[in-house]
Structure formats: structure tokens, C-alpha cells
Specification:
Strand content: under 5%
Shape: globular
Radius of gyration: 21 Å
Largest sheet: 3 strands, mixed
CATH superfamily: Rhodopsin 7-helix transmembrane proteins
CATH class: Mainly Alpha
Number of strands: 5
Structural class: mainly alpha
Distance between the termini: 56 Å
Number of domains: 1
CATH architecture: Up-down Bundle
């Protein structure tokens, strides 16, 4: 992506955690265990869904795809971040920086699109239960997952191509722990930088808000339908199938708004770093916890899977 005649910068310096020299070891241990838990939690969800035939339904197919996108998203950023916390050399090659940007945007937006698809799945299940098997057929589910991944790929390609076709003529210090777009734009030079920055920002905000609007629309219809259920037990059962997804949506978009909708103005490096941590480390860490604890069917399936492994003769 780097044009030989358009850029004199061959590498960048990531200085995101350099302002916390005394805390870097503590950060490493904390983020390492959070990352390990994120990986194991998502792998456990995927293994449980794979092994339990009762979970071979569209809702859990989408959850499995969500776990895969989350694993790839964290893998694109966190291992490099952990290595920098233990190293004195924080340089990253131009192409490596472009690759990190591409994969982080690809899987980040795939995650948003899959959350939207999961909202649609809950809408069909609750508002149109008799048509569920037709509207959410295996072929239809596969198409929704494929479109989500394709949409994430297109977003990642458009953003990365737009940013890394700019001219970078120094300095090369990125005031972040990853190849984040806003600090990258500050390093670019040329008359087209403001236009590219505005275009990329509008694209990202439009995609995120568009997904959020569709999710809110799905839940508006869901709430209306649930309120029409005569029994309190029926209403509780219907809403419980949405609780984990709705909680993850609130966490995901709550932290995303901190990154993309923060007010413009002077911002300290420390604040930018801490705000980035919430979305890149904390959100993926919370997601498997929420789905495991708030989804009763998945939680029971996990217990059953563990018991089968520990006491196969009793099951």
C-alpha cells in the first residue's frame, strides 16, 4: 500500500504507553491475562456450540461467528501491544502498520454487522415465530454471516487504502499503542488529508450508527410484541433470549462512542491511550462473560459439556 514515490516514512514509532513507564509491567500482566481469558472464553463458547446439537440453531451460529471475529480482532492488535510493553523498541514497519489497520477495521466492523444480524434474528424469532424456519434457513443464515464478513472486509479495505495512500513525510511517532487512524492522520501531509479524514470519519460513524439504528428498530418491534404476551412468565422467557445480546450491544456501542464520538479538541496522550484500552481490550474481555452468564441455555450447555468430560461414565 505504500507508494515508492509518495512516502518517505518506512516505519512508525508507537509511543502509547511511554507515558506510563512505571506501570508497563503491571499493564502487561493485566492485559495478558485479560487477553488470555478473552481467547479461552471465545474458544469455550465455540467448542460448546460445536459439541451440543441443541445449540445448532441460527442464534448460536451467529454467536460462533461473533466469537471468531472477536478472536481475530484482538489478535490483530493485542499481541503487538503486549510485546511493546516489554520492549524498548516500539517501531512498526509501514506495511505492518497498514496490515494492523486493515485487520482491526475488518474484524471490528464484522463484529458490528454480526451484532446487527443477531438483532434481526431475535426480531424474527419473537415477532414472526411461525416464519422463523423459512426466514432463518441454513442458506439464509450463511448468507447473513457471509455478508457481515464481506462488509467488514470492504470497510477495512476502504479505510486502509484511503489512509495509507496519503503522503507521510515525518515525524513518524504515533501517539497511540496501535496504528489508530486519528494519530496517523496527524502525521500525514498534503492538501487532501482533511478531506480523507472527514471521509473516513463519516464512513465509520455512518456504518456504526446505521447498525445501531437497525438494532434499535429490531428491539422496538420486539418490545411491542413482548408487551402483548399475556403471561408474565412468557414475557420473561421471551426477553431472556435477548438479554445477553442486548447487554453486549450496550457495551460495544457504549465504548465505541467513546472512541468515535468524543468531542474534538486538545486531548492528552494518557487519555487517548486509556480510551483506546476500553474498546480494544475491555470490550472483547466482557463479551464472552456476558454471553456465558446471561444466556441460560449456553451456560447449561457449558456445564453439561464439562461434566461429560470430567465424568463420562455418569452421562
Amino acid at each position: 500500500m505504500q507508494g515508492s514515490n509518495t512516502s518517505v516514512v518506512t516505519e512508525f514509532i508507537l509511543i502509547g504507553f511511554s507515558t506510563f513507564p512505571q506501570l508497563q509491567l503491571m499493564f502487561f500482566l493485566l492485559f495478558f491475562f485479560m487477553y488470555l481469558f478473552t481467547l479461552l472464553g471465545n474458544l469455550l463458547i465455540m467448542a460448546t456450540i460445536w459439541s451440543e446439537r441443541s445449540l445448532h440453531t441460527p442464534m448460536y451460529l451467529f454467536l460462533c461467528a461473533l466469537s471468531i471475529s472477536e478472536i481475530f480482532y484482538t489478535f490483530a492488535i493485542i499481541p503487538r501491544m503486549l510485546a511493546d510493553l516489554l520492549s524498548t523498541n516500539h517501531s512498526i514497519a509501514f506495511r505492518a502498520c497498514a496490515s494492523q489497520t486493515f485487520f482491526s477495521f475488518t474484524f471490528g466492523f464484522t463484529h458490528s454487522f454480526l451484532l446487527t444480524v443477531m438483532g434481526y434474528d431475535r426480531y424474527v424469532a419473537i415477532c414472526h415465530p411461525l416464519r422463523y424456519n423459512v426466514l432463518m434457513s441454513p442458506h439464509g443464515c450463511a448468507c447473513l454471516v457471509s455478508w457481515s464478513w464481506a462488509g467488514g472486509f470492504i470497510m477495512g479495505l476502504v479505510v486502509t487504502t484511503s489512509i495509507f495512500n496519503l503522503t507521510f513525510c515525518g515525524p513518524n511517532e504515533i501517539h497511540h499503542f496501535a496504528c489508530h487512524v486519528p494519530p496517523l492522520l496527524k502525521l500525514a501531509c498534503g492538501t487532501d488529508v482533511p478531506m480523507v479524514g472527514t471521509g473516513v470519519g463519516l464512513l465509520c460513524i455512518t456504518a456504526l450508527l446505521g447498525c445501531l439504528l437497525l438494532i434499535l428498530l429490531s428491539y422496538a418491534f420486539i418490545v411491542v410484541t413482548i408487551l402483548k404476551i399475556p403471561s408474565a412468565e412468557g414475557r420473561h422467557k421471551a426477553f431472556s433470549t435477548c438479554a445477553s445480546h442486548l447487554t453486549v450491544v450496550v457495551v460495544h456501542y457504549g465504548f465505541a462512542s467513546v472512541i468515535y464520538l468524543k468531542p474534538k479538541g486538545p486531548q492528552s496522550l494518557e487519555m487517548d491511550t486509556l480510551m483506546g484500552i476500553t474498546y480494544i481490550v475491555l470490550t472483547p474481555f466482557l463479551s464472552p462473560i456476558i454471553f456465558s452468564l446471561r444466556n441460560k441455555e449456553l451456560k447449561n450447555a457449558m456445564k453439561k459439556t464439562f461434566l461429560r468430560k470430567l465424568y463420562p461414565e455418569k452421562l
